């Protein structure tokens, strides 16, 4: 198994829809793991074009309860791949996602809602 470190920053919560029971957020997702096959000599990291991600193994991370999501691609895909000499890979991307959130509005307007943002990975 590969150990993958992950961090997530919420850049914005764009909309909250009581009618659709969902919210839309823009997030920055960063993942880090080590792949010994990518070790190289040197003391500086290599930053790669995001289009090269198709040539690398990346975690199959997905957003639980996502209704729709997209990666930003203006002016280029908002993905970063950085490889360090020891084979550590940093993979970062910007995603906007609409996520289901079951809301209990029975106490409106004195209600309080808790919506989650969960990430998972498929295991094969």
UniProtKB/TrEMBL annotation:
It is found in: Synaptic cell membrane. The keyword Cell inner membrane does not apply. It comes from the Eukaryota. GO terms for cellular component: synaptic membrane. GO terms for molecular function: extracellular ligand-gated monoatomic ion channel activity; transmembrane signaling receptor activity. It is a multi-pass membrane protein. The keyword DNA damage does not apply. Keywords: Ion channel, Ion transport, Membrane, Synapse, Transport. This is GBRP protein. It comes from Cochlearius cochlearius.
